Amino acid sequence: MAEGQDLKGTRTEGSVTREPVGSWLWRLWWLAVMTAHLLLGAAWWFLAPGGFPLDHPRFWTNDLVPIAIVGLAVLCLWFLHRERMERLRPILPAWAAAWAGLTLALVWTFPITMARIWPVPAALALAMGLSAIGPWRRGGPADRRVLAGSLAIGVAAAIAGAGFAISLRPPAAGTHPIGGMEATDFRNPAGSNLPDAGAIRFGSDIMVQPSDGTLMARIAPLTVSVQPLLRFVSRSQDGAPVVLVPAAMREGPEPRVHRISRADDGGYLLSYNLKGQGPASLRAAFDPNARSIALDAASTLDRPVFSHLNAYCDIEVRGHHRLSLEFSPCPGSLFGLVRPGIPFGRPALFAYVRADRTILVVEATNGEKGPFQALDRGRLDPSDPLTITLHDQGRPVARLTLDDFAAQADTTLSPTAGWGVPVNAIEFALADDRPSATASIFITLAGTSVGRGWDCVTHRAGTYRNRIRLAPLR
Predict the structure, then answer these.
(1) Which of 142, 214, 231, 393 is the most buried (most CB within 10 A)?
(2) CA distance 60 to 57
Protein backbone atom coordinates (compact mmCIF):
# COMPACT_ATOMS: atom_id res chain seq x y z
CA MET A 1 0.00 0.00 0.00
CA ALA A 2 1.53 3.33 -1.03
CA GLU A 3 -1.02 5.45 0.75
CA GLY A 4 -4.02 4.03 2.49
CA GLN A 5 -5.12 2.26 5.64
CA ASP A 6 -3.43 -0.82 7.09
CA LEU A 7 -5.07 -3.67 8.99
CA LYS A 8 -4.80 -1.87 12.36
CA GLY A 9 -6.51 1.29 11.19
CA THR A 10 -3.32 3.36 10.77
CA ARG A 11 -2.58 5.39 7.67
CA THR A 12 0.64 4.95 5.70
CA GLU A 13 2.29 7.75 3.71
CA GLY A 14 5.30 6.37 1.89
CA SER A 15 7.53 4.83 4.56
CA VAL A 16 5.90 6.79 7.46
CA THR A 17 2.99 5.28 9.41
CA ARG A 18 0.56 7.71 11.02
CA GLU A 19 -2.14 6.83 13.51
CA PRO A 20 -5.52 8.55 12.92
CA VAL A 21 -6.36 11.28 15.42
CA GLY A 22 -9.52 9.45 16.56
CA SER A 23 -7.57 6.28 17.31
CA TRP A 24 -4.91 8.25 19.17
CA LEU A 25 -7.52 10.02 21.31
CA TRP A 26 -9.24 6.71 22.00
CA ARG A 27 -5.98 5.20 23.29
CA LEU A 28 -5.23 8.31 25.36
CA TRP A 29 -8.71 8.20 26.91
CA TRP A 30 -8.40 4.59 28.01
CA LEU A 31 -4.85 5.15 29.20
CA ALA A 32 -6.18 7.91 31.48
CA VAL A 33 -9.14 5.78 32.63
CA MET A 34 -6.97 2.76 33.48
CA THR A 35 -4.29 4.84 35.18
CA ALA A 36 -6.92 6.61 37.30
CA HIS A 37 -8.48 3.30 38.35
CA LEU A 38 -5.04 1.86 39.11
CA LEU A 39 -4.10 4.80 41.36
CA LEU A 40 -7.50 4.96 43.04
CA GLY A 41 -7.55 1.22 43.70
CA ALA A 42 -4.04 1.28 45.18
CA ALA A 43 -4.82 4.31 47.38
CA TRP A 44 -8.09 2.76 48.46
CA TRP A 45 -6.39 -0.51 49.44
CA PHE A 46 -3.67 1.36 51.37
CA LEU A 47 -5.91 3.87 53.17
CA ALA A 48 -9.11 1.91 53.80
CA PRO A 49 -9.42 0.29 57.23
CA GLY A 50 -8.86 -3.44 57.53
CA GLY A 51 -9.30 -6.16 60.11
CA PHE A 52 -12.97 -6.86 59.33
CA PRO A 53 -14.37 -10.40 59.64
CA LEU A 54 -15.20 -12.36 56.51
CA ASP A 55 -18.95 -11.85 56.94
CA HIS A 56 -18.62 -8.06 57.07
CA PRO A 57 -19.15 -6.21 53.74
CA ARG A 58 -16.11 -4.02 54.37
CA PHE A 59 -13.83 -7.07 54.19
CA TRP A 60 -14.80 -7.48 50.55
CA THR A 61 -14.92 -3.81 49.58
CA ASN A 62 -11.70 -2.83 51.40
CA ASP A 63 -9.49 -5.90 50.95
CA LEU A 64 -10.56 -7.70 47.78
CA VAL A 65 -12.24 -5.20 45.47
CA PRO A 66 -9.24 -2.79 45.34
CA ILE A 67 -6.93 -5.66 44.43
CA ALA A 68 -9.32 -6.72 41.68
CA ILE A 69 -9.48 -3.17 40.32
CA VAL A 70 -5.70 -2.78 40.32
CA GLY A 71 -5.20 -6.17 38.68
CA LEU A 72 -7.78 -5.55 35.97
CA ALA A 73 -6.41 -2.06 35.27
CA VAL A 74 -2.87 -3.40 34.90
CA LEU A 75 -4.12 -6.13 32.57
CA CYS A 76 -5.99 -3.61 30.40
CA LEU A 77 -2.95 -1.32 30.27
CA TRP A 78 -0.81 -4.24 29.09
CA PHE A 79 -3.29 -5.19 26.38
CA LEU A 80 -3.54 -1.54 25.36
CA HIS A 81 0.23 -1.26 25.13
CA ARG A 82 0.45 -4.44 23.05
CA GLU A 83 -2.57 -3.41 20.93
CA ARG A 84 -4.35 -6.65 21.76
CA MET A 85 -7.80 -5.48 20.76
CA GLU A 86 -9.20 -8.99 20.78
CA ARG A 87 -8.33 -9.18 24.49
CA LEU A 88 -9.69 -5.73 25.31
CA ARG A 89 -12.95 -6.37 23.47
CA PRO A 90 -14.67 -8.40 26.24
CA ILE A 91 -13.14 -6.45 29.15
CA LEU A 92 -13.65 -2.75 28.41
CA PRO A 93 -17.48 -2.83 28.64
CA ALA A 94 -17.10 -4.13 32.20
CA TRP A 95 -15.80 -0.76 33.38
CA ALA A 96 -18.92 0.97 32.05
CA ALA A 97 -21.13 -1.74 33.57
CA ALA A 98 -19.47 -1.32 36.99
CA TRP A 99 -20.06 2.43 36.98
CA ALA A 100 -23.63 1.97 35.75
CA GLY A 101 -24.35 -0.50 38.55
CA LEU A 102 -22.70 1.83 41.05
CA THR A 103 -24.80 4.79 39.89
CA LEU A 104 -28.12 2.93 39.96
CA ALA A 105 -27.44 1.47 43.42
CA LEU A 106 -26.35 4.85 44.80
CA VAL A 107 -29.56 6.47 43.56
CA TRP A 108 -31.62 3.64 45.07
CA THR A 109 -29.72 3.66 48.39
CA PHE A 110 -29.30 7.43 48.85
CA PRO A 111 -32.11 9.07 46.84
CA ILE A 112 -31.92 12.48 48.55
CA THR A 113 -28.17 12.99 48.27
CA MET A 114 -27.83 11.50 44.78
CA ALA A 115 -30.70 13.55 43.36
CA ARG A 116 -28.16 16.34 42.64
CA ILE A 117 -25.03 14.45 41.66
CA TRP A 118 -26.13 11.26 39.89
CA PRO A 119 -25.34 12.73 36.43
CA VAL A 120 -21.60 12.70 37.25
CA PRO A 121 -21.13 8.91 37.66
CA ALA A 122 -23.77 8.32 34.98
CA ALA A 123 -21.79 10.45 32.51
CA LEU A 124 -18.61 8.50 33.30
CA ALA A 125 -20.43 5.21 32.72
CA LEU A 126 -21.84 6.49 29.42
CA ALA A 127 -18.46 7.77 28.21
CA MET A 128 -16.76 4.47 29.01
CA GLY A 129 -19.59 2.52 27.42
CA LEU A 130 -19.42 4.46 24.16
CA SER A 131 -15.63 4.27 23.98
CA ALA A 132 -15.72 0.51 24.60
CA ILE A 133 -17.36 0.07 21.17
CA GLY A 134 -14.08 0.71 19.31
CA PRO A 135 -12.53 -2.79 19.60
CA TRP A 136 -15.83 -4.37 18.56
CA ARG A 137 -16.02 -2.24 15.42
CA ARG A 138 -12.42 -2.72 14.35
CA GLY A 139 -12.05 -6.37 15.33
CA GLY A 140 -14.66 -7.85 13.04
CA PRO A 141 -17.56 -10.10 14.06
CA ALA A 142 -17.13 -11.93 17.36
CA ASP A 143 -18.16 -15.50 18.02
CA ARG A 144 -20.76 -16.43 20.58
CA ARG A 145 -18.23 -17.43 23.20
CA VAL A 146 -16.66 -13.98 23.16
CA LEU A 147 -20.08 -12.34 23.38
CA ALA A 148 -21.13 -14.61 26.24
CA GLY A 149 -17.86 -13.99 28.07
CA SER A 150 -18.17 -10.24 27.67
CA LEU A 151 -21.77 -10.35 28.92
CA ALA A 152 -20.79 -12.43 31.96
CA ILE A 153 -17.93 -10.10 32.83
CA GLY A 154 -20.21 -7.08 32.44
CA VAL A 155 -22.92 -8.53 34.67
CA ALA A 156 -20.35 -9.40 37.34
CA ALA A 157 -18.90 -5.88 37.17
CA ALA A 158 -22.36 -4.30 37.46
CA ILE A 159 -23.12 -6.45 40.51
CA ALA A 160 -19.78 -5.51 42.07
CA GLY A 161 -20.42 -1.81 41.48
CA ALA A 162 -23.91 -2.05 42.97
CA GLY A 163 -22.60 -4.06 45.91
CA PHE A 164 -20.02 -1.40 46.68
CA ALA A 165 -22.69 1.31 46.71
CA ILE A 166 -24.96 -0.75 48.98
CA SER A 167 -22.06 -1.42 51.37
CA LEU A 168 -21.95 2.33 52.08
CA ARG A 169 -25.39 2.15 53.65
CA PRO A 170 -25.17 2.74 57.43
CA PRO A 171 -25.54 -0.37 59.59
CA ALA A 172 -28.68 -0.81 61.65
CA ALA A 173 -28.89 1.58 64.60
CA GLY A 174 -27.38 0.14 67.76
CA THR A 175 -27.77 3.03 70.17
CA HIS A 176 -30.07 2.52 73.17
CA PRO A 177 -31.95 5.67 74.19
CA ILE A 178 -33.04 5.17 77.79
CA GLY A 179 -35.58 7.98 78.04
CA GLY A 180 -36.07 9.60 81.39
CA MET A 181 -36.29 13.30 81.93
CA GLU A 182 -38.15 15.01 79.09
CA ALA A 183 -38.47 18.66 78.11
CA THR A 184 -42.15 18.48 78.98
CA ASP A 185 -41.17 17.82 82.61
CA PHE A 186 -40.45 21.54 82.88
CA ARG A 187 -43.82 22.88 81.85
CA ASN A 188 -44.93 23.62 85.41
CA PRO A 189 -41.80 23.87 87.57
CA ALA A 190 -41.63 25.72 90.83
CA GLY A 191 -40.34 29.26 90.56
CA SER A 192 -40.73 31.80 87.83
CA ASN A 193 -39.88 31.78 84.16
CA LEU A 194 -36.60 33.58 83.41
CA PRO A 195 -36.45 33.91 79.60
CA ASP A 196 -33.87 36.71 79.52
CA ALA A 197 -31.47 35.41 82.17
CA GLY A 198 -27.75 35.74 81.54
CA ALA A 199 -25.21 33.22 82.73
CA ILE A 200 -26.43 31.05 85.59
CA ARG A 201 -23.87 31.24 88.40
CA PHE A 202 -23.27 28.92 91.32
CA GLY A 203 -20.78 31.01 93.24
CA SER A 204 -17.79 32.64 91.62
CA ASP A 205 -16.23 29.50 90.10
CA ILE A 206 -19.13 27.71 88.39
CA MET A 207 -21.57 28.91 85.77
CA VAL A 208 -23.86 27.50 83.11
CA GLN A 209 -24.37 29.26 79.80
CA PRO A 210 -28.14 29.04 79.09
CA SER A 211 -27.77 29.52 75.31
CA ASP A 212 -26.34 26.02 74.79
CA GLY A 213 -26.18 24.48 78.27
CA THR A 214 -22.38 24.61 78.55
CA LEU A 215 -21.00 24.27 82.08
CA MET A 216 -17.81 26.14 82.95
CA ALA A 217 -16.11 25.36 86.25
CA ARG A 218 -12.89 26.55 87.82
CA ILE A 219 -11.21 23.78 89.83
CA ALA A 220 -7.75 25.20 90.41
CA PRO A 221 -5.58 24.99 88.47
CA LEU A 222 -8.02 23.62 85.88
CA THR A 223 -10.84 25.29 83.99
CA VAL A 224 -13.26 22.65 82.77
CA SER A 225 -16.07 23.20 80.27
CA VAL A 226 -18.71 20.55 79.59
CA GLN A 227 -21.29 20.55 76.78
CA PRO A 228 -23.89 17.92 77.81
CA LEU A 229 -26.50 18.19 75.04
CA LEU A 230 -26.43 15.73 72.13
CA ARG A 231 -25.15 17.62 69.06
CA PHE A 232 -24.67 16.50 65.46
CA VAL A 233 -21.69 18.15 63.79
CA SER A 234 -21.69 16.36 60.44
CA ARG A 235 -24.76 14.46 59.28
CA SER A 236 -26.60 13.21 56.19
CA GLN A 237 -30.31 13.14 55.46
CA ASP A 238 -30.34 9.64 54.00
CA GLY A 239 -27.15 8.10 55.40
CA ALA A 240 -24.91 8.86 52.42
CA PRO A 241 -21.21 9.53 53.16
CA VAL A 242 -21.01 13.19 54.16
CA VAL A 243 -18.36 13.90 51.53
CA LEU A 244 -21.26 13.77 49.04
CA VAL A 245 -23.41 16.17 51.10
CA PRO A 246 -23.09 19.96 50.63
CA ALA A 247 -21.34 21.62 53.57
CA ALA A 248 -24.36 23.81 54.29
CA MET A 249 -26.54 20.74 54.82
CA ARG A 250 -24.20 18.72 57.04
CA GLU A 251 -24.29 20.56 60.34
CA GLY A 252 -27.10 19.80 62.75
CA PRO A 253 -29.29 22.46 64.39
CA GLU A 254 -28.10 24.65 67.23
CA PRO A 255 -30.05 24.47 70.49
CA ARG A 256 -32.40 27.38 71.14
CA VAL A 257 -33.40 27.93 74.74
CA HIS A 258 -37.06 28.79 75.19
CA ARG A 259 -37.56 28.46 78.95
CA ILE A 260 -35.42 28.83 82.07
CA SER A 261 -36.97 28.14 85.46
CA ARG A 262 -35.78 27.91 89.05
CA ALA A 263 -36.29 24.65 90.93
CA ASP A 264 -37.15 24.24 94.62
CA ASP A 265 -33.67 22.95 95.47
CA GLY A 266 -31.95 26.02 94.06
CA GLY A 267 -31.08 24.42 90.74
CA TYR A 268 -32.20 25.56 87.33
CA LEU A 269 -34.33 23.89 84.67
CA LEU A 270 -33.77 24.76 81.03
CA SER A 271 -35.66 23.56 77.98
CA TYR A 272 -34.48 23.79 74.38
CA ASN A 273 -35.68 23.21 70.88
CA LEU A 274 -33.44 21.91 68.09
CA LYS A 275 -35.28 22.53 64.82
CA GLY A 276 -35.80 19.36 62.83
CA GLN A 277 -34.34 17.21 65.59
CA GLY A 278 -36.47 17.50 68.72
CA PRO A 279 -36.60 19.03 72.18
CA ALA A 280 -33.84 18.94 74.77
CA SER A 281 -33.74 19.62 78.50
CA LEU A 282 -31.11 20.39 81.11
CA ARG A 283 -31.20 20.47 84.86
CA ALA A 284 -28.24 22.01 86.69
CA ALA A 285 -27.84 21.74 90.47
CA PHE A 286 -25.00 22.62 92.83
CA ASP A 287 -24.00 20.76 96.00
CA PRO A 288 -22.32 23.36 98.26
CA ASN A 289 -20.97 20.76 100.67
CA ALA A 290 -19.09 18.73 98.04
CA ARG A 291 -18.54 21.80 95.85
CA SER A 292 -19.78 19.63 92.96
CA ILE A 293 -22.27 20.31 90.21
CA ALA A 294 -24.70 17.84 88.64
CA LEU A 295 -26.08 18.12 85.11
CA ASP A 296 -29.05 16.08 83.94
CA ALA A 297 -29.45 16.50 80.19
CA ALA A 298 -31.99 14.85 77.90
CA SER A 299 -32.05 15.13 74.10
CA THR A 300 -34.98 13.73 72.13
CA LEU A 301 -34.64 12.68 68.49
CA ASP A 302 -37.97 12.73 66.71
CA ARG A 303 -36.55 10.49 63.95
CA PRO A 304 -33.36 8.50 63.35
CA VAL A 305 -30.33 10.66 62.60
CA PHE A 306 -27.47 9.63 60.29
CA SER A 307 -24.19 11.27 61.22
CA HIS A 308 -20.46 11.12 60.68
CA LEU A 309 -19.45 13.33 63.62
CA ASN A 310 -21.49 14.07 66.72
CA ALA A 311 -20.96 14.75 70.40
CA TYR A 312 -22.79 13.02 73.21
CA CYS A 313 -20.59 15.00 75.58
CA ASP A 314 -17.84 17.46 74.68
CA ILE A 315 -15.29 18.43 77.35
CA GLU A 316 -12.44 20.93 77.28
CA VAL A 317 -9.77 21.38 79.94
CA ARG A 318 -7.45 24.38 80.27
CA GLY A 319 -4.93 25.60 82.83
CA HIS A 320 -3.09 22.31 83.33
CA HIS A 321 0.65 21.78 83.08
CA ARG A 322 0.57 18.14 81.97
CA LEU A 323 -2.84 16.49 81.93
CA SER A 324 -3.50 12.77 82.17
CA LEU A 325 -6.71 10.76 82.47
CA GLU A 326 -7.70 7.81 84.62
CA PHE A 327 -10.75 5.73 83.66
CA SER A 328 -12.69 4.00 86.42
CA PRO A 329 -12.61 0.53 84.75
CA CYS A 330 -8.78 0.81 84.61
CA PRO A 331 -7.85 2.07 88.11
CA GLY A 332 -4.29 3.19 88.59
CA SER A 333 -3.53 3.64 84.88
CA LEU A 334 -2.87 7.21 83.75
CA PHE A 335 -3.03 8.12 80.08
CA GLY A 336 -1.30 11.26 78.89
CA LEU A 337 -2.70 13.38 76.09
CA VAL A 338 -0.92 14.18 72.84
CA ARG A 339 -1.73 15.96 69.62
CA PRO A 340 -2.33 13.20 67.04
CA GLY A 341 -1.28 13.51 63.44
CA ILE A 342 -4.29 13.78 61.09
CA PRO A 343 -4.42 11.91 58.77
CA PHE A 344 -0.84 10.67 59.32
CA GLY A 345 1.68 11.15 62.08
CA ARG A 346 1.65 10.72 65.83
CA PRO A 347 -0.76 7.95 66.89
CA ALA A 348 -4.12 8.94 68.34
CA LEU A 349 -5.37 7.69 71.71
CA PHE A 350 -8.96 6.80 72.50
CA ALA A 351 -11.15 4.37 74.43
CA TYR A 352 -14.20 2.35 73.45
CA VAL A 353 -16.64 -0.23 74.79
CA ARG A 354 -17.03 -3.55 72.95
CA ALA A 355 -20.14 -5.67 72.72
CA ASP A 356 -18.76 -8.00 75.42
CA ARG A 357 -18.68 -4.94 77.74
CA THR A 358 -14.88 -4.72 77.75
CA ILE A 359 -13.61 -1.16 77.70
CA LEU A 360 -10.23 -0.71 76.05
CA VAL A 361 -7.87 2.25 75.95
CA VAL A 362 -5.91 1.97 72.71
CA GLU A 363 -3.25 3.65 70.62
CA ALA A 364 -3.42 3.79 66.83
CA THR A 365 -0.60 2.73 64.55
CA ASN A 366 -0.38 5.95 62.53
CA GLY A 367 -2.64 8.94 62.98
CA GLU A 368 -6.10 7.41 63.44
CA LYS A 369 -5.26 4.31 61.39
CA GLY A 370 -5.18 0.81 62.89
CA PRO A 371 -4.29 -1.79 63.91
CA PHE A 372 -4.82 -0.48 67.43
CA GLN A 373 -2.67 -1.50 70.38
CA ALA A 374 -4.48 -2.01 73.69
CA LEU A 375 -2.87 -0.02 76.51
CA ASP A 376 -5.26 -1.21 79.22
CA ARG A 377 -8.68 -2.75 79.57
CA GLY A 378 -11.45 -3.23 82.11
CA ARG A 379 -15.15 -3.99 82.30
CA LEU A 380 -17.99 -1.49 81.91
CA ASP A 381 -21.47 -2.96 82.18
CA PRO A 382 -24.49 -1.00 80.92
CA SER A 383 -25.49 -0.13 84.47
CA ASP A 384 -22.01 1.11 85.43
CA PRO A 385 -21.14 4.80 85.52
CA LEU A 386 -17.97 5.84 83.73
CA THR A 387 -15.71 8.07 85.82
CA ILE A 388 -12.84 10.03 84.30
CA THR A 389 -10.37 11.46 86.82
CA LEU A 390 -8.36 14.46 85.66
CA HIS A 391 -4.73 14.45 86.85
CA ASP A 392 -2.34 17.36 86.49
CA GLN A 393 1.31 16.36 86.73
CA GLY A 394 0.23 13.11 88.34
CA ARG A 395 -1.97 14.74 91.00
CA PRO A 396 -5.74 14.11 90.91
CA VAL A 397 -7.61 17.40 90.59
CA ALA A 398 -11.19 16.68 89.48
CA ARG A 399 -13.53 13.80 88.78
CA LEU A 400 -16.10 13.67 85.98
CA THR A 401 -18.75 10.92 86.13
CA LEU A 402 -21.08 9.97 83.26
CA ASP A 403 -23.91 7.75 84.46
CA ASP A 404 -25.52 6.88 81.14
CA PHE A 405 -22.77 6.47 78.52
CA ALA A 406 -22.37 2.71 78.87
CA ALA A 407 -26.10 2.00 78.76
CA GLN A 408 -26.67 3.89 75.49
CA ALA A 409 -23.45 3.30 73.52
CA ASP A 410 -23.62 1.51 70.17
CA THR A 411 -21.17 -1.41 69.98
CA THR A 412 -21.61 -2.10 66.24
CA LEU A 413 -18.32 -2.37 64.33
CA SER A 414 -17.19 0.94 62.90
CA PRO A 415 -17.00 1.07 59.07
CA THR A 416 -14.15 3.61 59.23
CA ALA A 417 -11.99 2.24 62.04
CA GLY A 418 -11.79 -1.50 61.42
CA TRP A 419 -9.78 -3.95 63.55
CA GLY A 420 -12.71 -4.70 65.83
CA VAL A 421 -13.30 -1.09 66.94
CA PRO A 422 -16.99 -0.12 67.44
CA VAL A 423 -18.66 3.17 66.62
CA ASN A 424 -18.68 4.48 70.20
CA ALA A 425 -15.55 6.34 71.27
CA ILE A 426 -13.95 8.46 73.96
CA GLU A 427 -11.28 10.48 72.16
CA PHE A 428 -8.81 12.62 74.06
CA ALA A 429 -6.14 14.89 72.60
CA LEU A 430 -4.28 18.19 72.90
CA ALA A 431 -4.85 21.14 70.59
CA ASP A 432 -1.12 21.49 69.83
CA ASP A 433 2.24 20.04 70.79
CA ARG A 434 2.60 21.90 74.10
CA PRO A 435 1.85 19.76 77.20
CA SER A 436 -0.18 22.70 78.56
CA ALA A 437 -2.28 23.11 75.39
CA THR A 438 -6.07 22.97 75.58
CA ALA A 439 -7.22 19.37 76.05
CA SER A 440 -10.40 17.96 74.57
CA ILE A 441 -12.34 14.85 75.53
CA PHE A 442 -14.80 14.03 72.77
CA ILE A 443 -17.40 11.37 73.59
CA THR A 444 -19.78 9.81 71.07
CA LEU A 445 -22.36 7.03 71.37
CA ALA A 446 -22.14 6.29 67.63
CA GLY A 447 -19.87 8.09 65.18
CA THR A 448 -17.10 7.58 62.66
CA SER A 449 -14.52 10.09 63.79
CA VAL A 450 -11.94 7.32 64.35
CA GLY A 451 -10.33 5.89 61.23
CA ARG A 452 -10.60 6.81 57.56
CA GLY A 453 -13.73 7.72 55.66
CA TRP A 454 -16.86 9.84 55.77
CA ASP A 455 -19.40 7.08 56.44
CA CYS A 456 -22.47 7.72 58.57
CA VAL A 457 -23.92 5.63 61.38
CA THR A 458 -27.34 5.91 62.95
CA HIS A 459 -28.76 7.24 66.21
CA ARG A 460 -32.09 5.55 66.89
CA ALA A 461 -35.06 7.84 67.56
CA GLY A 462 -35.83 8.37 71.23
CA THR A 463 -34.59 10.29 74.27
CA TYR A 464 -30.91 10.13 75.20
CA ARG A 465 -30.01 10.98 78.76
CA ASN A 466 -26.71 12.34 79.98
CA ARG A 467 -26.29 12.64 83.76
CA ILE A 468 -22.94 14.17 84.65
CA ARG A 469 -21.28 15.02 87.98
CA LEU A 470 -18.19 17.19 88.17
CA ALA A 471 -16.45 17.32 91.55
CA PRO A 472 -13.11 18.62 92.82
CA LEU A 473 -10.69 16.27 94.56
CA ARG A 474 -9.05 17.75 97.62
Answers:
(1) 231
(2) 6
